[in-house]
Amino acid sequence: AKTVSPARRSASAAFVPSHVSNCISVSMDRVVIFGGQKQSVRTLCDMYSWDGVDWKLITATNQGPCVHSASMAWDTRSATSPRLIVANGYVDVNDTQNTDVWYFKFSSTTSGTWALASPPPCVPRRDAMGAFDRSSKKMVFFGGGDGFLYAFHAEPEKTADGGILKTAWKLDVVPPEHKKDKNGKPYKYPAPEGPSEIIATP
Questions:
Q1: Contact 87, 70 (CB under 8 A)
Q2: 176: pLDDT confidence band, cut at 50, 70 and 90?
Q3: How far is CA 120 from CA 10, 56, 68, in A?
C-alpha cells in the first residue's frame, strides 16, 4: 500500500533538492510538508515528502517542534551542510506563539535530525511565507497579517533577552488610502480589523 500523508491544515511546505550533507549524498528533489493542525484538536509534529506520485514519511532521530502556521525554507548557505529552517507559527491549538527557530538536517531521503537555534531568535508571526535568498544569505518572510514585506539576516543576533533575527529591510505594502476608514480615522495596525490581513503559504 502507498504511504499517504494524513489530512491537515496550516502545514509548512518547501522544495528540497538532492544534496550532500556532511559527506552523505541525499537523493531528494521532493516537496516536503511539515506540521500543521489535524481537525483543530492537535498540532502535528510529523514530516512527509512527495515526488508528485508517492508520499514518504521522514523520521527524526530526536524530538523537534510541533507547530502550525509556521514558515519553512531550504537554507543553502553551507554547501556541505544545507538544512531546512522552521520558524514562526503556533505551538498548540490555543495559538501560543512559537518564538524558536529550528533546523532540520537530512541524513537520508527519509530521516534526519532536528537542532534548536541558540539563542532562540524570532519575530513572532503566523501564516507567513518563507524563502531563502541564496545570493544575500537572508531568509525572507512575507505576510502574516501586518502588511509588511521583511528580509531578516539568517543568523541570530544576541540580545539581553536571548536573541533575535535582525531586520535587513522592510517594506510597507499597504497603500496609504487603505490605512484609514471613510471618516479619516486610522485603523488599528496590525489587527484583524486593520488595513491588511495578508495570509501567505510557505
A1: yes
A2: confident
A3: 23, 30, 18
